Amino acid sequence: MDDEARAGDLTICRYPGGYLVGRLRDRDDDLVWEQEASVRRLNGALSFAQRRATREGVAVWLEVDGEFERVNPEDD
Fold first, then answer.
1. What pTM was computed for the model?
2. CA distance 57 to 25
3. Where are the beta strands (DSSP E) in 1-76?
4. What pLDDT, on a 0 to 100 scale, did the predictor assign at position 75?
5. Pick the residue with more confidence: 8 or 29?
6. What are the boundaries of each domain within the chain?
7. Which of 1, 7, 49, 72 has its CA 20 to 30 A from that of 13?
8. Which positions ≥6 away from 14 have C-beta within 8 Å?
9. Which residue intervals of the chain are DSSP H helices?
10. CA dist 16 → 5, 13, 19, 38, 42 (Å)
11. In Å, what is the CA distance from 27 to each residue of 24, 31, 41, 51?
């Protein structure tokens, strides 16, 4: 199991209007975050991100208490 995020992986973060789904991009030898979608509910954000991740072969990371935890790492 890999416990580090990579370019292409998706992230889910809470914000006042719901959840932001973003993608990590490799830019100038560093990872940067770009927004992909805004979703009202966590289950919707998880579903959206997991469908894309499965199709694209990337991981999903969920922010929990300021730290990112990988969603379903056993699926590797």
1. 0.87
2. 15
3. 10-15, 18-27, 30-39, 60-64, 67-71
4. 55
5. 8
6. 10-71
7. 1
8. 63
9. 42-56
10. 24, 10, 8, 11, 12
11. 9, 6, 30, 25
pLDDT at 73: 62
Both tokens assigned to 37: 């979608």
- pLDDT at position 15 is 95
Write the pLDDT tens digit of every residue in 13-70: 999 999 999 999 999 888 899 999 999 999 999 999 999 999 999 999 999 999 999 9
Amino acid letter, residue 17: G
Task: Decide: residue 26, CB within 10 A, 0-12 exposed, 13-18 middle, 19+ buried.
Answer: exposed
Determine contact, residues 5/68, Cβ cutoff 8 Å: yes
Q: Which two tokens stand for residue 35?
A: 């927004």
One-letter amino acid of 36: E
